[in-house]
């Protein structure tokens, strides 16, 4: 496809980022914020990933649909993404609202788009790209759009090859040799059904995958619709794209698979969030924030460089504005404004940092021995997520070893065998978790 045709199509494409889910599986990180607003990699938010993918793909007209705990997400979007006044580019929030047409909240991804369709149709968009707000990946949507146009498809779905066990947790697509989707099964568990969905030897060869291995095309929850097709697909009361709209569209419309083979992680649980963050600290991470060709954008905080008075740091990320004094940090993420005091040892953990620096502390706080924001001295923290603005006193031990994998404690939780200290929590000195 020639460049001018693609550029025209990009200008006619509206990107819609789904950010309205409650994020219950990411609790307590979603206790006071929406899932797309959860911090990632020390200085970013989950929502920065799909928005940056759009911007790097030449798609500059983006709506983010929100619903639960959306204040921090709104603040982040408004601070991070501002365009000039001379082009029709925008990243805007559309929050769930009561209207004369209905007073209910979003009941699913399709319902969220349906409730806002009147706003989307006001402008001359011809293509609609539906994206999730809680996935970690880097994709050129220009390639998706080019393939969609060249194949004259009605709907294009981004898919990723997965193994047999992983296939049982995804919506799996069966395609013909031209990439047209002929069958869709949501989370197939029966072996005989899986046998009928695996990629053929020819498809494996086309995707440059090793022959002889069972591979299945899993839906990534990324959909590109033609305008008229989206209107027709939403002319009902079906709630969700993956569960309802897409299965009904197959056979009725020309539905195409776009096979993606890069890194992709659906950050839907505490464990997946924890492991995705720690992977970033590897010497050679699976996901690379250092790719200058496709940068990830976020809120420019204008913080000072981190100050390290004395420390031993291995395979870790230290974000802007941190102060570390005589501490040991191993395989961990330190978020913006993290304060780590002397003789503290942090290993395999995600410390999210703080939203502010404390100045002179009030006398009332000093009298009650409230610890300052940050991590105190002589602490040991292992396999933990410490959310923003937490106050960890001195001589505190946080370690899930020997404890249940699921537990609700006082000022902490254990999820998937990982200790989570929620935002603003206070852990007094000498506490052992």
Which tags fit this structure?
alpha/beta; Spore Coat Polysaccharide Biosynthesis Protein SpsA, Chain A; 433 residues; globular; UDP N-Acetylglucosamine Acyltransferase, domain 1; 13 helices; single chain
Description:
This protein is of the alpha/beta class and 433 residues long. The chain has 2 domains: 3-280, Spore Coat Polysaccharide Biosynthesis Protein SpsA, Chain A; 307-427, 3 Solenoid (UDP N-Acetylglucosamine Acyltransferase, domain 1), CATH 2.160.10. 22% of the residues lie in helices and 28% in strands. The chain is built from 13 helices and 29 strands. The radius of gyration is 23 Å and the shape is globular.
CATH architecture of the largest domain: Alpha-Beta Complex
- Count of DSSP helices? 13
CATH topology of the largest domain: Spore Coat Polysaccharide Biosynthesis Protein SpsA, Chain A
Structural domains: how many: 2
CA-atom Rg in angstroms: 23 Å
Shape: globular
- Strand % is 25-35%
Average pLDDT over all residues: 92
Strand segment count: 29
